[in-house]
């Protein structure tokens, strides 16, 4: 059945030497300002690129596109605040929110 269709074309190569191609831009309007429950002493706010469910009691669960406020930067882990809850989570699940000056 699947032998009747040709394979899909290969993806277009991306030139990562070009700085603009390597930057991911998010269109998340609620990430542009601090919300009422955000920590006043955060290092940066970041965005979740994957869902994460905590495995231990001191970890933080969140869903993709969540804006998290980082309060500590550890070895492979962040400590952050999301929905008024503080906890640890892996850095590989999030990315920095890049803002450009107008």
TrEMBL record:
Q: Where is the SH3 domain?
A: 41-99
According to UniProt, the name of this protein is: SH3 domain-containing protein
- Main location group: other
List, alphabetically, the PROSITE patterns matched: SH3
A GO molecular function annotation here is:
SH3 domain binding
Q: What is the lineage of its organism?
A: Eukaryota, Metazoa, Chordata, Craniata, Vertebrata
| Highest taxon of the lineage | Eukaryota
Which residue stretches, if any, does this entry annotate as coiled coil?
none
**Entry keywords, A to Z:** Cell projection, Coiled coil, Cytoplasm, Cytoskeleton, Phosphoprotein, SH3 domain
Source species of the chain:
Theropithecus gelada (Gelada baboon)
Q: In its keyword annotation, does this UniProt entry include Phosphoprotein?
A: yes
Describe the family membership recorded for this protein in Swiss-Prot or TrEMBL.
Belongs to the ABI family.
A cellular component annotation (GO) from this entry: lamellipodium
Subcellular location(s) per record: Cell projection, Filopodium; Cell projection, Lamellipodium; Cytoplasm, Cytoskeleton
